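REVIEWER CHECKLIST
Item 1: Sequence provided? yes
Item 2: Single chain? yes
Item 3: Sequence as submitted:
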Amino acid sequence: MEGYKERLEALIQSKEALYRDMLSQENADVFESAKDLIVQGLLNGQRVFFCGNGGSFAQAQHLAAELSGRFYMDRPPLAAICLGSSGSMFSAVSNDFGYEEAFAREIQALAQPMDILVVLTTSGSSPNVLRAVKMAGEFGMQTLALTSKRAKDLLRVAEVAYAVDSEDVARIQEMHLFFGHLLCAQVEAEIFAEPSEDVDDESIL
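Item 4: Structure as written out by the authors:
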């Protein structure tokens, strides 16, 4: 029977491989695109909407709170909203229109063109998430997906996508949160960066 240390060693090795995969040029480019999408959107007065199911819903709430509250800096709040946070609205729409419409209906109520939708889904096949992405496209929103390599349908329609190369749901969710934290930190730093002081060329000769 595998013991604690053996399980921990195997876990560390699997996670190390996923973290190192984030250093690939492909994922570095994805991160830059995701960061630019959110920074430019927020600076232009757009809002960032998050959605997901189960553990991904918890992470959607988490990341929306990091932006609308604070991450590292004490600074003004950023316009971030987690879809589905109103239990009454979510259950009413699910009951009256079907669970598939739960996020899409809220997008219809709240979103404006060029707002940003961030979806978190380990499978990439959740009907309500795919419907939300479709509705976002109809509204002229921009989409960022945090998902996995198996999310073929979602990867075809999301404008920017970070796809974790794993079949393990827990590992995928951990990488989504890590990516999201990196994103929040960079977005916060760029939007609220202190303007650099002009440097006197003669002072550095």
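Item 5: Key structural point noted by reviewer: The helical segments are 4-21, 25-43, 55-68, 87-97, 102-110, 127-138, 152-157, 169-191.
Item 6: Recommendation: ____
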